[in-house]
Amino acid sequence: MIEIGEPGPLATVQDLGRPGYAALGVPRSGAFDRGAAALANRLVGNAPGAALLEVTLGGLRLALRRAATLALTGAPCGGDLDRGTAVTVRAGSELRLTPPATGLRSYLAVRGGIDVEPVLGSRSTDLLSGLGPSPLRAGDTLPIGRAVAGEVSEVSAPGPSPANVLSIDAGPRDDWFAGVALDQLTGTEWTVRGESDRIGIRLDGPAFERSRVGELPSEAMLPGALQVPPDGRPILFGPDCPVTGGYPVIAVVRTRSLDVAAQLRPGDAVRFTISR
Amino acid sequence: MIVRRYGEHALLVELDDPRLVPSLLAAAAALVGAAEVVPGACTLLVVLAADASREQLTTQLSSLQPAVHESSDREPVELAVRYDGEDLDEVAQLAGLDRDSVVELHSSATYTVRFCGFSPGFGYLDGLVEQLHVARRAEPRTAVPAGSVAIAGEFTGVYPRSSPGGWRLLGRTDAPLWDTARTPPALLTPGSTVRFRPS
């Protein structure tokens, strides 16, 4: 059992999310930085789909009622746990994560996984639709499961420190914008706005100009979609994005690059490059 | 029909006629290379299966011939509605009708779920008579009660649970629109036909 002392700014339970229900209006959800989450699970010998904690800007304090093996990946929090390696702690241990110097989201996996009740096949907290467990609060207790996929990894795996350049595929609705729009997208250093979360990362920069009038009939949205609302400033959709939306998507960020996007903080600069 | 690329793992099929969406949905969902299909108002998103070839799936989708089915072979879902919604008078006024005529028009049509979105289990229902096409409220409500039957633009729909919302409220139903313990969890799924019965 894990007991939450303080959740910090935002801590949620995440796994690989709820693919397959989008046609019913259910967001995909799941860990934002999937690479970091997969690494944390691998280090403790969990299956890729095991639930772990997604910790935003550190600040998490927790106690373990029994001995457990943990791994911390993603944004480099300071505190009581080394990052990128499996660590076994005694029953009764108290751990604290301090805010990372860079990056936004850290992942804390425990061998056996977080064993809260799944909803539609997933233990992920979906902040848009409210499915899954609520964001963690002080005093919450989380059961630790028993399902493991292999041995605890002996290696230590320092996380990558990628540049903030995201690979995109143009479209599907780049033809809704003036001809220079893709050059504008790739030629601009965009700034992450404060109103960014798991639903979307809002970007500041030169507004896109539409070449069409009228409204786009609602169509499917996906994590990674760069949607351009009427004010012309793009929103990069995250895992909890709505499944349908009525504004054109100028380009879609590649899966690998979404892991990089997950670590963007308000004020960070980010660029886009078209995949070849 | 146009097939567009939608990022690394998906295709977006654009149709000329929104009534073709249910037929395309059924045909595309049966393709081996399609992991997931998500309808929109006039489009279908097809997410590629892990080992699927984009080129092959594009060719397969392009060769599908969706048709307009005037009547569905699915049994209609009938929802009992208390037509006492807060916006009934306003809708009547906007439509130049009296309350009873609004209820009569809304409850005499048969609707089809064209797509879902906004919140889990919220279906955009096609088939609203043109007289009832009214704009959404200028100021959305911060909380619309669960089960509210509402209209906006060309669509009608039912709020599966309490949420903010800008559609105009005609009434309420007690039908369980969303239940995660049920398979599927949504009462109304894309392609479902729906009728509203005054109670």
Give an overview of the whole structure.
The complex is a heterodimer of chains A (276) and B (199). Chain A is mainly beta and 276 residues long. Chain A is built from three helices and 19 strands. Chain A has helices at 34-43, 181-187, 255-261, and strands at 2-6, 10-14, 52-56, 61-64, 68-74, 78-79, 87-89, 94-98, 105-110, 141-142, 165-170, 190-192, 200-204, 219-220, 225-227, 235-237, 244-245, 249-253, 269-274. Chain A has a seven-stranded mixed β-barrel. In chain A, β15 and β16 form a beta hairpin. Chain A is elongated. Chain B has 199 residues and is α+β, with helices and mostly antiparallel strands. The longest helix of chain B is centred in the middle third of the chain and has 10 residues, at 99-108. The radius of gyration of chain B is 18 Å and the shape is elongated. The relative contact order of chain B is 0.18. In chain B, 18% of the residues lie in helices and 32% in strands. Chain A binds chain B through residues 19-26, 119-120, 129, 131, 169, 171-172, 217-220, 222, 224-225, 242-245, 249, 252-255, 275, and chain B through 4-10, 12, 18, 25, 35-45, 47, 115-124, 180, 184-186, 189-190.
Quick overview:
Chain A contains 3 helices and 19 strands. Chain A is mostly beta strands. Chain A is elongated and about 60 Å long.
Describe the SSE topology.
The complex is a heterodimer of chains A (276) and B (199).
Chain A: E1 2-6, E2 10-14, H1 34-43, E3 52-56, E4 61-64, E5 68-74, E6 78-79, E7 87-89, E8 94-98, E9 105-110, E10 141-142, E11 165-170, H2 181-187, E12 190-192, E13 200-204, E14 219-220, E15 225-227, E16 235-237, E17 244-245, E18 249-253, H3 255-261, E19 269-274
Parallel strand pairs in A: 11-19
Antiparallel strand pairs in A: 1-4, 1-10, 2-3, 3-9, 4-8, 5-7, 5-9, 6-8, 11-18, 12-13, 12-19, 13-16, 14-17, 15-16, 15-18
Chain B: E1 2-5, E2 10-14, H1 21-29, E3 34-39, E4 43-48, H2 54-62, E5 77-81, H3 88-95, H4 99-108, E6 111-116, E7 123-126, E8 141-144, E9 148-152, E10 155-158, E11 163-165, E12 168-172, E13 193-198
Parallel strand pairs in B: 5-13
Antiparallel strand pairs in B: 1-2, 2-4, 3-4, 6-7, 6-13, 8-11, 9-10, 9-12
